[in-house]
Amino acid sequence: MKTSTGVASSLLLRLDSRSPTPLHEQLFEGIRARILAGALAPGLRLPSSRQLATELDVARSTVLQAMDALTAEGYLVAQAGSCTRVAPELPILSGDRSREPGLPAAARASTSGKGPRLAASTRALKASPVGAPRLGAAPRAFRPGVPALDLFPTALWARTVSRVHARASTGLLDGGDPSGHAPLREAVAIHVSVSRGVRCSPEQVFITAGTQQAFDEVLRLALNPGDSVWVEDPGYPGARRAVLSAGGRPVPIPVDGDGLDVGEGLARAPRARVALVAPSHQYPLGVTLSLARRMALLQWAERTRSLIIEDDYDSEFRHRGRPFTALQGLDDAGCVVYVGTFSKSMFPGLRLGFLVVPPSLVDVFSAARAAAPAPASTLEQAALALFLAEGHFARHLRRMRAAYRERGEALLEALYADCSGVLTPHPCDTGMQVCASLAAPLSDLRVRDEAARMGVEVAALSDYFLGRRRESGLIFGFGGVRPDALREGTRTLARALEAARLRPPQLKGRTR
Predict the structure, then answer these.
(1) Mean pLDDT lowest for which of 100-109, 178-187, 295-304, 428-437?
(2) Complete domains list, the chain, with CATH
(3) DSSP states of 194-260
């Protein structure tokens, strides 16, 4: 009955005494939902608390508690010495089924067909590929980007964390410096200066919650809406997502055996505001930016006053010889922001990284951080600072270089043994992944899906192209997999390759 002069003889409510939600909360939500749905009209008189308690077989105190809460939030109006009514001027939200009592929030949102307006760039963000599907939580062949978690010194790290927690000062417990824990900034400055040839002081180092936060922070400070950004093609999908999130326009620049084609970048977007590159170990192809192109890139940035974001995610893991000097070490004009992470060198759950900004931008980044919370747990930052200062991190890196060399060689040997003639692996002398070209006419997307059905993760090179796809291939991660499991994985992959060859192509599917 929906009349402002009538009485609701029954609220048609049902309470569940077995539910973990208290009865008064169930009653509150039930009445509120019916008011919002329009089933209880504005001004409608409700039954007395005694009548409701009898109808619902609950204590009167339960009813009174729910009614008091509804009155406090403005849904009901209690008239002294009289009755309780639905608020007479309550605005009812539009839609009918979208406000049905008991309908889940997600379903209510979906039935309306509308939602808040978002930036146009979110359409491109939603369309960005997400790569290979994860098959369970544990690392397996050949999940890209996973370090050798089985070799991480967990006990040593736990003792380091315990020492920091036991000695934690009020400064550590208070949240810390928004720019990062000072001892960690100093330890990072020393480490990258020695190991990567980065020229910096601790004041230029800002701690982040990983690579993605570093990209977001730099791009939001550098870009105006619609500004062009060079991104490697094929390249890391997280880079283009960061550009879109910051309102920029990613411009795909081809990558060949010498790295990013700077000449092509000058032709496609000569006045781009930012270039986002991985010069020491490009992902996913694994190539290195040649010296000639490094110099051309720096000259372009200086001439146009553009910014270069150097993504140095895993080049510390050069299997033989010393890692290449960072691009930042060649920068005399202050155009390069150097980005590093501990997620690959330690473990992904640590979620700690850093960026090194040119001296001229220290004040800008400090001001941007001033009103922000600390980028990560100060206690974890302090533990990592101690881990670096005591030499544990350097020893861990040396051990990982040897392990990745062994695992990389084992993977290449297994691919040649089991998949020769179908896959051609690229050279692998750095990091934790290998790219392999796939013989035509096999589709890397189809191979990826066949492998997933057989329990093997492998990424399709097609997913890493933003522009026109120029090559079909597969990306293999080997960092988190032992050599014997790698060989077992290539045998399974060989069966997946054969299944993909025999399976007819779908009439409807993804095209590039």
Answers:
(1) 100-109
(2) 23-112 (1.10.10.10), 131-145+396-502 (3.90.1150.10), 152-394 (3.40.640.10)
(3) HHH-----GGGEEEESSHHHHHHHHHHHHPPTT-EEEEEES--HHHHHHHHHTT-EEEEEEEETTEE
